[in-house]
Amino acid sequence: MKLFSHRIFLSTICSSFLTLLGFSSCSESALMYGMPTGNFVVKGAVTDEDGNEVRNTEIRVTYPDTPSGIYYLEETITDSKGYYEIKGYELLPEIKVVCIPETSDLQPDSVNVKMKYKDADKHNSWDYGHADASVNFTLKSS
Fold it and tell me: Is residue 55 part of a domain?
């Protein structure tokens, strides 16, 4: 019985130490204590040069300096009418939106977008609020 209580004590000490360092063990959020928060939504449409909707196109959100398509934070696919909506729960002053068509008939594209967070003054100083962006792509033929 003493061994079990020592393990609980040691576990509590380790958890407390990690908490002091700023790490959290919450599964709902990957945020660290004291880190500013925000969320965003990017939506738009993908068409070809003739104005036809492009379905099943991968839309990715990544850091602006990351090579397109290598690492991404969020991803979605356009619907049957070429529309998409992607949500993120990161505070990013700028993002890169990457558009990768399903076939090689069309060229991929990407654009950097500066995010403007609203309602930061209505929340506490750690919450930067919400940002919306609209990004439409017109893909060129290969």
Answer: yes
